[in-house]
Every structure is written in structure tokens, then in C-alpha cells.
Amino acid sequence: MTKPQKKLGILTSGGDCPGLNSVIRAVINHAVLTYGWQVLGIPYATQGLLDQKAIPLSIHGLDLRGIDPLINMGGTILGTINRGDTLAHFDQIQAGYQALGLDALIGIGGDGSLAILNHLANQGSWQFIGVPKTIDNDIALTERVVGFDTAVNTITDALNRLTFTASSHDRVMIVEVMGREAGHLALHAGIAGGADVILMPEIPYAIQDVCRHLTELRDRWGRRFAIIVVAEGAKTATDSHDQQPDQRPSCGIGQYLASEIISCSAYPVDVRVSMLGHIQRGGIPSALDRLIATAFGKVAVDLIAQGQSKQMVAWQSGQVVAVPLEAVIAANPLLVTPDSQLVQTARALGIYVGSPAHFSPIVLDKEE
Ligand code: F6P
Predict the structure, then answer these.
(1) Atom of ligand 1 at shortest range from CA of 232
(2) pLDDT tens-digit series, residues 329-344
């Protein structure tokens, strides 16, 4: 019995991250080998629908010698965009969806993209399945997303390198990482990379506490260097820095923090700033991101085959499950909880993670 041929579209939307091509690979292979469908890559997110452009994707990958490079290639072969007034162009996007003859669509995106795609799918009555990706790890109802693990590894590697040079020169090294609203990257990589201070948008910091912590490290433990990880959206409770992004200092939080530390430090301090920027979004995906991406891609195709729609594949208790996109959107964004176990772990190790000021075990371990 021949299976009905479906035309399945796939697109990547929002900021890129490692692992997107691994999802695309899993979708192509499973859709073609298991279901015999045709898979069309839509370039540059919804812009491809608007332009009525699609690329037929084959299981042989991009390499004519049979090598499949998608499993470990960073970025996205489909291209992506993270700007634009997509919803205003619904009619043209809908016309594109129909002109391309799509029966269903898989969209790989972050919280913003998934909300927009779900809205379009509702309006256009598309069969749509979302796959969560973001280095920010701020998508609700899933324990894992594509891209986060690689970014954490990239930052951790940078912290390893910076620790050697910081300790050689007795310097305070500030490492600015991505995360405008969510501090998961800073928290995870800060703990894994042995940071002394981790500053995140969710937990306000006080510059006096940061400086006091650096003094404690030096006076009580003989540490003449320090590593500070700061998320780009980190805030104080009162400073003018606690503003909307367009009102913040153009130098970035890392430089801002450096000048603040120099002003308030109890001893002369030599500070350097490293801004990791888009290095965090590049690179080849880690093994874990490839596994997550592959498992998500496989289940996304199965959900389409089962006739499901407006669901997001999610990782829950070691399984890939489907959760309604409406529920995900309602619960987004997933932020760091100030009393989470990971925050408590950081504090227990003597890392300053923002107020309340907490120097255990340094302060509690008083010597005569
Ligand atoms: O949302 C992902 C993210 O990496 C944020 O952490 C960061 O603020 C933003 O993208 C940067 O986006 P752009 O590519 O537009 O500079």
C-alpha cells in the first residue's frame, strides 16, 4: 500500500544556534525514509514563504560523495532572520504557503518565533509543529532546548582559558555573556567554569556587594584574581543601569561593571573585559545538542504523521513529548528562579550571585 505523499516544509526562525542543522537532518531522513514525504526547506524563516521560495531537501545531504555534513554543522543551511513585522504580512505569507503546496510545516524557533508561527498557523489553518531552540534556554515546559548545551560549553571553555591569564596577572576578569532577560547561560557556565561572581537579570546585584566579595576573596583566601560572569541584561536594584536596553550604556554591561568596580574597590584593581558575543551562537553542536536535535526532529515528523498540530516537541523526564504551543506561549519566558537549586548551589560554593548578599562560607568561617 502506498503512503500518501506529503509536502512537508521546514524553516528556522530567530537567532541561530548550534544544532539547527541536526534537527533539519533528522526531519529530512525520517520524513523521507519512514514516510516517503517530500521535504522543502523554506529559506530565511517566513521570508521564504513571503517570497514563495523553497529548496527541495534530500537525504544525501549537501555532499555529492554521500557525506552528510548536517549532523555537526553550526548555523542553519536554511538561513534565518530575527527581525521584521511578520504578522502584518499574513496575507502574503499565506499565499506563499499555498503556492508552495505545503501540507504541513515544522518551525524551529525560540519563544518569539514560536509564538508568531503559532499565530500564523492558527490564522492560516496550517498543520504546524514547533521545535524549541535557543542558547538562552528560556522556553517553558521543556527541560532541554537545542543550542543551549553548546553555548554553555563555549562559555565554560572561555572561562577555563581566562582563568589562567587572570591568575597570572592578578586580574579581575569580567566575561559578558548573552542573556537579556534570562540568566541560565551565565548561571550554568559560571558554575561549570568556576566563576567567583555570577550576575543575572533575574537577581539584582549591588556593586558594593560585588566589591566586598572581591575583597573577601583576596583578604581571607589569598585569591588575587577573580572571574566575574555577567549576563548582558544583569541589573542592580537602584542604578540607572537598570533601564530598558536602549537606555543602557552603549559600552555594554561588562565595561560598565569594570568602571564601577574600579571606583568602588577597596584596593587597586586591574580589570579586563571579554565580551563573548556571537561566539556563543557559533561553533559545531555538542553531542548533547545533536542528540536533543535528532530526537526532537524525529518526534516532530511523527506528530505530523499523526495529524497533530500547534504542538511543540519538549523534553520532559528523559522523553520527548508534545505540549500545546498555547501552553508554552502562556508560560514563557522561563527565567532563573532566585531560590532555585542551582542558585543555592552557587551560593553554597561561595559564589556571589546577586542579592541577598551572601558570602557563605567565607563570612561564616571566621578565624581569629
Ligand atoms: O535570543 C538569543 C540571543 O542570543 C540573546 O541572548 C541575545 O541578546 C540576542 O540573541 C542577540 O541577537 P542578535 O543576533 O540580533 O544580535
Answers:
(1) 8
(2) 999 999 999 999 999 9
